Amino acid sequence: MEPLGLDARALADAIDASADRVEAVVSGTAPMDAELDLRLARYFRMSEGFFLRLQADYELLEAKRALNGSLDRIAPRAA
To answer: Could you tell me if 63 and 71 are in contact, meaning their C-beta atoms sit under 8 angstroms apart?
Structure first.
């Protein structure tokens, strides 16, 4: 957010959200939720759901890392 000249508190003020909530999401200690996604999408002129999809992609990647190859031992069921 630095290139945009924003900090979490300024962003929170601009989107009428809790600064604590924005700071938690930015720092990675809380996940994105639908309400914050809608506010951010409106502010940054992005599609609704954009930030939720980023969150989902991140969670899938982290889950794959945590499984550490155990998915490879699952044989897909034949159609």
So the answer is: no
Q: Which one, of 7, 50, 61, 58, lies nearest residue 30 by Cα? A: 58
Question: Domains of the chain (ranges plus CATH)?
Answer: 2-73 (1.10.260.40)
In a structure prediction context, what are the per-residue pLDDT tens digits for the chain, which is 79 residues long?
677 788 889 999 999 999 999 999 999 999 999 999 999 999 999 999 999 999 999 999 999 999 988 988 999 999 8
**What contacts 32, CB < 8 A, 6 or more positions away?**
25, 51, 52, 54, 55
